Amino acid sequence: PVVIAAECPATSQCAARPSGTMVLGGSSSWRLVLAQAILLCFGMSWCWATSVPRFQAVSMYNATHVSIVGEPNATRKLLPPEQFCQSLGCSCHLDQSLSCQLESDRIAAIPQLLDQDRANKITDINIENQRNFVELNEAQLQIYPKLKTLTIHRCGLKYVSPKAFFHNRDIQKIDLRYNEIEAITWTAIEGLGTIELLISDNELVCNCSAKWIQMKILQNSRIFGPLGNKIECQHPDQRSQTSLLSSYTIDGCDVPEVEVVNVSARVYERERVTLTCRGRGKPAPRVHWDTARVQAAPYELKTTSSVEEQHDAEGKLIGTIQVTTTELVLHRVDGTANGPLRCYADNLVGRSKADVNLTIFTPPRITSMKMGKRFNHHIQYDVVAYPMFNWSWFINDRPLERDPEKYNYIHQKTDTASYRGFLEFLSPISSVAGFYTLVVENEFGTANETLEVTFPGIPHNNNNNPRHRPPVPSGKPRIQEREPYVDVDIIPIIVTLSVLVVLVSVVGALVALRWCQFRQENYAADGTRFCAWLWLSMRPGGRRCFDRKRVVGKERIPLNMTRMVENPNYPNYFQDTMKNGKTVVRHIAREKISFIQSLGEGAFGRVFLGTVDYLTPDEPTTLVAVKTLKNMSVDEARLDFDREAELLTNLQHANIVRFYGISTDGDPLMILFEYMEYGDLNNFLRDRGPDSTVLDPKSKQVPPLSRADLLKISTQVACGMEYLASQHFVHRDLATRNCLVGDMLVVKIGDFGMSRDVYSTDYYRVGRHTMLPIRWMPPESILYRKFTVESDVWSFGVVLWEIFALGKQPWYELSNHEVIQQVTSGKLLGKPDECPEEIYQIMLSCWKAQPQDRSPIKVLHEQLDHFCKAESEYMPIIE
């Protein structure tokens, strides 16, 4: 086995063979060939031998596109990119592509990159003119998970595996034209979402394997591109004759029918149950169950086949149909399998499905119980039970008081019979330590679990031998009751000694403090340290501050408060400052919240106008905007909710939408903000712009905005952004749609999360889920997804443009793709018609190509504030 020399030019006609020999110019002696290669190809360079049977196709370090035209086959050895390019006579574009132009047919599979980091960057692969490339399968493509476009043209491709693209969920276009494919199954593209599959100019046969393609074409599906209805197929009995696939009659095959014997089944946990599914069709269907839900219990599958006669209305035999029956036998069924079980029947033409609703009566079972922390410490527990269970908590074997000031109970249903709950601690952690017991019970049984809650460095005086154990299932030992023993004879001695200790401590403390005062006057460092030690020692928990050997719990370190800038304009009663010095999220009881009307809906949930009773000490009712969150059963979504709430608690500024708190006692979870009367700034500007009657002919005429008004709006947004920058907070989505307007033209920055749905045209979708506001993004954010305070400055410049353009969309005349081209090539937005030149210069200072060259937001705020104050001297009213 050999590796071709790293700098062998294309003129040498190097070729690798699986036998391990390298042939140059057809010589049969590999030593002679190697010598010729050294002299002819390299001069002073050389080719060295290794154990690689074929060439290695290597991506550039930052490559996003690979064009492989005549590239060699896959290998198991990695060469540096530069050496690989030169060895094949390829042209290398270090940060874009690898393009190879060879005349020989040496590709038999997609080249493999052993460096997974490089492979992850590949989005496009193009292979052409390789007659030895006859098969495409899953193994060739699995190392390219980010692949978006695959092109294989004019090759000998005949076979595409049914699971070829299983690992390429982001793929958007598969171009297999001009090959020799006779059949491709629908399973090859199953689950890929919106995709374009180009398969014209192949050798498709007009039989059942092409029926699914025909059905898609007749349904006007766009999956096969604009010329899908022109796809031709070869007649089975005469391959030289072709017809349009859409008009050819294909008999004897159709999508199978499927049915389950019983649409519902009821059984007790640990019992045995058999579920039967039957599929009928031509060709014979494969019938199978989705067993993902039943993995916790042993099961087996039994499949049988038969032929069923078909008769017409008069009872005359008209044909037969093939039947496949599959039984799913569950031995000792587990409660986690509660819910629908799905059965599939599929053949060459397509797939059908049917469900069985499986009900498993399950006694409660606590599967996990552990400590955790989001923005509060909590106990997290998971329970499996059906039907729903009753639950209760005990601390040190006494019923836990339901005090909303100390505890918050959260209970979520994650599946038909699975539940996840949290017991959140809202009190100081020193007061909640102890032994916590959860008891769950339904009509089929009872279960309990006990967890000791402790915190490092926080002592607690819990009795390790609890006296009152709650009810437990049979088989678990009970703790015997025992009264504590006290010797009454020693009580007077204890009292006397205690009084003496207190008197000595008080006298000693007074003497020491007087001595401290004297020493402090002389600035004695040692005396000051002693005074500090003595003073802290007299406070509860103070002695621990000077005990270097003691481990201090993380919850006692005020991480947030040391970093947050105090704002005197923001009332203290909208946050709860924990006794340990850490800012925590305020919890608002659900019964205090009333809904008035819906304000909108987004992917996250809905936003309502509502009221909260006694939110502040001096107001019996406060108007609020309530953001509801759905799909909170998913851990990741709940963590996002927690992070958002904790973040909003710490953002306190007159130009940031005020965050009141959260409500988590039940579904849906809710976040409460102050209500801003006039909604988002974008609509506010449009309603007062010259095109307001065009946008909404029925809208009432409102007075236009003056330049003074526009400057006041701009200054407030700049003020809010200056505060965010001082907190090292990057907004990432600053736009007028994410600013809100209140009474007296008060503007605040805030995002209810609806903008991605209401203003969908402002966002550019990347992949399936990511939506980017590319019209507000600087080049480094578009190209490299880099978001910084400087990228927010660029976005602020675009917001200024929106304000003085009275709500117009930036680059409104261009598509998203064109905007990307304009911004990345250095083009900038033009000056709005009524915008003063001084303001446009501020915009330009925000749009410098290099982030470090952009004006700091503090400077921008000062400039706008200056113009706002001086406006009356030189700025006329907008007509």
State the main characteristics.
disordered N terminus, Immunoglobulin-like, alpha+beta, receptor, 39 strands, seven-stranded mixed beta sheet, Leucine-rich repeat, LRR (right-handed beta-alpha superhelix), globular, 879 residues
Helix content: 10-25%
CATH architecture of the domain at 679-695 and 703-878: Orthogonal Bundle
CATH superfamily membership of the domain at 679-695 and 703-878, which one?
Transferase(Phosphotransferase) domain 1
Terminal CA distance reads 82 Å
Might you state the CATH topology name of the domain at 679-695 and 703-878?
Transferase(Phosphotransferase), domain 1
CATH structural class of the domain at 679-695 and 703-878: Mainly Alpha
Shape: globular
Task: Tell me about the largest β-sheet.
Answer: 7 strands, mixed
Count of DSSP H/I helices? 17
Indicate the mean pLDDT. Answer: 75
Sheet-strand content, in percent, reads 25-35%
Q: Tally the beta strands.
A: 39
Radius of gyration: 37 Å
What spatial order of strands do you see in the largest sheet?
Answer: 4-5-3-6-8-10-11
Structural class: alpha+beta
Low-confidence stretches: 1-66, 68-79, 84-98, 459-489, 516-581, 752-757, 874-879
As an assembly, this protein is single chain
Main location: membrane
Enzyme class: transferase
Domain Ig-like: 256-359
InterPro entries: Ig-like_dom (IPR007110), Ig-like_dom_sf (IPR036179), Ig-like_fold (IPR013783), Ig_I-set (IPR013098), Kinase-like_dom_sf (IPR011009), Leu-rich_rpt (IPR001611), LRR_dom_sf (IPR032675), NTRK (IPR020777)
